[in-house]
Fold this sequence. Notes:
4 copies of one chain form a homotetramer. Chain A is mainly alpha-helical. Helix content of chain A is 70%, strand content 0%. Chains in contact: A-B, C-D.
Amino acid sequence: MTPGGKETLQTRERLLKVAARLFATEGYRGTTIADICRHARANIAAVNYHFTSKEQLYREAWRYAFQQSIQRHHPDGEIPETAPVEERLRGRIRALICRVTDRNNLEFQIVQKELAQPTGLLREVQREALAPLRKNMEALIREILGPEVSEEEIHFCQMSVMAQCLGPMAGRHGRSSRHSCQPFWSRNRKALAAYVEHVVAFSLGGLKEIRRLHESKR
Amino acid sequence: MTPGGKETLQTRERLLKVAARLFATEGYRGTTIADICRHARANIAAVNYHFTSKEQLYREAWRYAFQQSIQRHHPDGEIPETAPVEERLRGRIRALICRVTDRNNLEFQIVQKELAQPTGLLREVQREALAPLRKNMEALIREILGPEVSEEEIHFCQMSVMAQCLGPMAGRHGRSSRHSCQPFWSRNRKALAAYVEHVVAFSLGGLKEIRRLHESKR
Amino acid sequence: MTPGGKETLQTRERLLKVAARLFATEGYRGTTIADICRHARANIAAVNYHFTSKEQLYREAWRYAFQQSIQRHHPDGEIPETAPVEERLRGRIRALICRVTDRNNLEFQIVQKELAQPTGLLREVQREALAPLRKNMEALIREILGPEVSEEEIHFCQMSVMAQCLGPMAGRHGRSSRHSCQPFWSRNRKALAAYVEHVVAFSLGGLKEIRRLHESKR
Amino acid sequence: MTPGGKETLQTRERLLKVAARLFATEGYRGTTIADICRHARANIAAVNYHFTSKEQLYREAWRYAFQQSIQRHHPDGEIPETAPVEERLRGRIRALICRVTDRNNLEFQIVQKELAQPTGLLREVQREALAPLRKNMEALIREILGPEVSEEEIHFCQMSVMAQCLGPMAGRHGRSSRHSCQPFWSRNRKALAAYVEHVVAFSLGGLKEIRRLHESKR
DNA sequence: AATGAATGAGCCTTCATTCAT
DNA sequence: GATGAATGAAGGCTCATTCAT
């Protein structure tokens, strides 16, 4: 209809957009192909035409959300590499919490549902999205704790920090949100900023304690 | 069939047991009434007969798992009320992590799926299971931080501690676990105990830092 | 509705009956579950309830037709075992041709479609229906030719006789029969009886020739 | 694309070739337009563009296979018209059995599926391919039996001979052949030649018997 | 002449629920 | 009190065909 094959691209893209949103709010099983096509104003067979199967669409929709997410948010919080390590940790934590709590960022909403109810379809999630995040966080922590702390301890510290960042993800709701109270971070930006500062302080305190214990043990 | 309604009770209980297990591993949507009845050696109509609907069975199954969980695990970690507050915090943390990582404890597996994919059917979860946990944790934290720290800060600290306890929940898998690497805490008890000690130390360090900041601010 | 669970049995049986008829005329792929259920006045889900899948229904429908067929036609043409071998051969040939050309005998119509377009679902057809037929025919032929004729020759003779019996099967039509001229054996019984006598005579002549050649070769 | 419509012709021919092969192995319903176009490296719309519909392609594909078949095999087995009638019968029988069992000869594979499962699309098959075959066979038989034998008897004899030739067609498989044992004639050429000789001998013996009966009746 | 996106009808199957014993 | 047959709505997917270039 429109010139230049634009229409074609648009249908595929519309499907991806809608699919990412619905998968994020309703989960894989809770989303039907019919829903997706209706919202994307596309034919019921469009999904199978463009993506072969619902499973494939799921994978590509997550990838789409993932790439949109890293386009919007710099994972280092735009802190230069030369800044002190505490500053860089703050940048990482802020960036991650922002990505996690951003209503328009579908990536982590899909990830969360995938973690809770693995479909086995997003193995690449681990590889491409979460593993680098963890690797990077562990590098920062190793820098703070010094080279003599065991890898297990570093791994545990990374878990502690990441858990605090991902924590606000829980209780995020889809359609059925009528039953739930709004989470704190959706009230205003100030509350979110306060939580970020809390996590930074709490984590630095925790790391300090771990290092102290390690040194006293020696 | 047998007199005294005994048979009924047995069937009912079998259904609850099986349902809790399946809901925990496969989620609400991933579990079919037929599955439940087959595993419980019950008639296909038994669920609707005993529980009116799948939704109602879901609610009662979670409650069943919840009550079994608190029967097995003392939420205070069997630390007497008179022990120092740090000891009581350690007891709480250990108890919670144990409940969360216990493969036979279905309660939190259901909770996790409910948090990620709210069906809106477990509003009571919040009220009966999680809220008391949080309340109690906040009380301990308030005791540690002193009465002058703001409620918001106490709430944030509770989130930090709880997030670390619930963190290991993520990545727990049901049927599709063939795709996943085993989590650290399933390797052996020692690793789990080490993580518990880490969370205690990290959290105490974090709380210390928060208190220090608060006092210096004054 | 009707007393005694009769209705239940009837639905299953109705499905089998209708399925056998439709599979016989339209083939496996040409028959839809919806068709079957409509003709059997059953719900669209009835097939999957009673038979799990279309494939399973196909197998059971053939078995149903097979058992009805052997109930109606005695495979030996009701010739006593003590009769001369030529008489017994005539009985066999007549019985087989009757079964093959009987419009109400669905068994061979299904078999024919299965031979032409194997679904791989009726492997038991070979074992249960055709193999015994061939075995029996070979026994008669061996009796006629004498023990010194090679197994290969006996097998070839069996093929010659069987092919003549099954030949009228070809050109049997389903829905699209408006395009085809009626086969000779549907015109009247006399034509069919004449064909039977022809096959008997032709085959006995053939066998005589084979034996003659064998003896002259010696 | 290329000038002169050459490209078109090539695409058209590729479609015909592929279609004949797929229709022969999978049958009309078992073959999809998408399959054909994929194997022929043609656009999904190519079939409808070149042949208007799948039905039309089916007809033309059979005709294509038919013409290729008669180009490769001389229907008289290359026996001169002047040879004795028995020799000419042998030539015919051998030629027909060769065509039927030749794996590369798609014509009869399509015919067989059409006979078992008439789509009503190949009415011309009867007229153009089978009828001449039968006519010719009947002429030979009439020559052997003499002019006084009834037309019905001649027709029956033709059926007997043809059935033996077409018999090996049954059990020929497409994709699902993994379930089937290999037919005798694919083992080696000697087995096939032996079967040809058997059919010739058996048929001559049968015809002799028929003539004898006819003469004795007189 | 040829293409690739798009369509709509239809197919097999699943599943929570109901109904008549 | 308990059962098993039956239902209808819906889900994912296939496929021949059409449409706009």
